[in-house]
Specification:
heterodimer; A: mainly beta; 11 strands; B: mainly beta; 6-stranded mixed sheet; 5-stranded antiparallel sheet; globular
């Protein structure tokens, strides 16, 4: 267990559904990330939050909406997704400091859009 | 921003052989270079890392080397075992600019160790 917990582990949703992914960390980290990992593709950075403020949005479609209510929790709200959005969604956290540090990943949510 | 290139994308070796994965980075200010291993269906996990003030680091069968001048770093696995089969990601982060703590990942190398 790395200290980063994601729920749910698996999610199947229709294209008209609305669902949310949750990520929680109690490592004292102040930066949190959402990554998308599709089959045989690299890790794609979606969003970065630092001290609850969004600092990066990598041209992600608006059907993905992140929320960071505090430094320990991160959500990804999903609505009207497409089948190509099916992927493993990974949350990660790290310390925000100029001296780079390890990123700790959650176990991921395997999302299937039908 | 930082750009990390990783090669090869796939590496197939026989058990007992050595495996080497190479990465290059573009930002000379980067100071932290971790390697992550992702087994099938699992999360990426750190296996070894190196900072810019060190040229080499070793942990049992794995080692990482860093050439700051050439801006490249490599992962070396000796005496490979089937359980080493996984996807390996390199990353770079750190530096003076804003957002430098955000790791930039390579595209990953799928290592297959044949028994």
């Amino acid at each position: 267990e790395t200290g980063v917990t994601q729920t749910p582990r698996h999610l199947v949703m229709g294209m008209t559904n609305k669902k949310s992914l949750k990520c929680e960390q109690h490592l004292g980290h102040n930066a949190m990330y959402w990554y998308k990992q599709s089959a045989k593709k690299p890790l794609e950075l979606m969003f970065v939050y630092s001290l609850e403020e969004r600092v990066e949005n990598n041209s992600v479609p608006s059907r993905f909406s992140p929320e960071c209510p505090n430094s320990s929790h991160l959500f990804l709200h999903l609505h009207t997704l497409q089948p190509e959005d099916s992927a493993l969604y990974l949350c990660a956290s790290s310390l925000e400091q100029s001296l780079g540090t390890e990123a700790f990943f959650g176990q991921g949510t395997r999302l299937t859009v039908v | 921003g930082e750009n990390v290139e990783q090669h090869p994308s796939t590496l197939s070796v026989q058990e007992g052989d050595s495996a080497v994965i190479k990465c290059t980075y573009s930002d000379s200010a980067s100071n932290y270079f971790p390697w992550y291993k992702q087994e099938l269906g699992k999360r990426p996990q750190l296996i070894i890392d190196i900072r810019s003030n060190v040229g080499e680091k070793k942990d049992q069968r794995i080692a990482v080397t860093l050439n700051k001048t050439a801006k490249h770093f490599s992962l070396h696995i000796t005496e490979t075992q089937p359980e080493d089969s996984a996807v390996y990601f390199c990353a770079a982060s750190g530096g003076a600019s804003g957002g430098s703590y955000i790791p930039t990942f390579g595209r990953g190398t799928s290592l297959i160790v044949h028994p």
